[in-house]
Structure prediction request, 192 residues.
Amino acid sequence: MSAPEAERTPQTSAAAEQAPPAGATAERAPSGLVLRPAHPDEYDLIGELTVTAYVGGGFVDAGSDYVPTLRDSATRSKEAELLVAELDGTIVGTVTYSPGGGAYSNIGDAEDAEFRMLAVATSARGRGVGAALVRLCVDKARAAGCTALRLSTQTDMVAAQRLYRRLGFVRTPERDWRLSSGFTLITYALPL
Prediction:
C-alpha cells in the first residue's frame, strides 16, 4: 500500500446494516467490510480481480475482446465511480457505478443510475460482499435523486440474478439488448 492509511477513509462500513430496499430481504456483510472508492495504486489489482471473476467464472472467454475492458479499471475510475470492498486489508470485491447518462451507462435514462462489472473474489463469495456493493450503488443513486438503478447481466449469471431479485430488483425485458457479437444481455431495475 503506497498511500497512507489515513487517506483511505471508508465511504461506508455498514452498508449491509442499512434497511434493504422495499420488498427486499436483508443480508449481512462480513464484520469489518469496508466499502470505498478505489485508489490509483489499486487499479491493476482491481482489473485482475474483475477478469478473474468473469473469466474464471466461465462468463467470458479468456480471448474475448471484453477482457481488456474488464482489466482497464483506470479508465473506469475516470469515466464512472470505481468502488471496492475491502476485508481485513484485502480488496475482495469491486463494482463500477455510473450516474445517468455517464460513459458507462448502457440502458439507463438521464434520471437513472447504472452499475456494471460487479466482481467478488472467489474467497469472499457467499458472504454478503456483492450485496453490500450493490447496496452502496443503491445509496448513491438515491442520494443523487435517481428514479431507478439499472443493470445488465448475462443469462448464465444465475447467482447474480438471485442476488438482484433478493435486493428488490425486477426484470425489465423491454430493455434487454444484444451486443454486436450477438450476445444477449438481460436487464433489471430497482425503482427508487
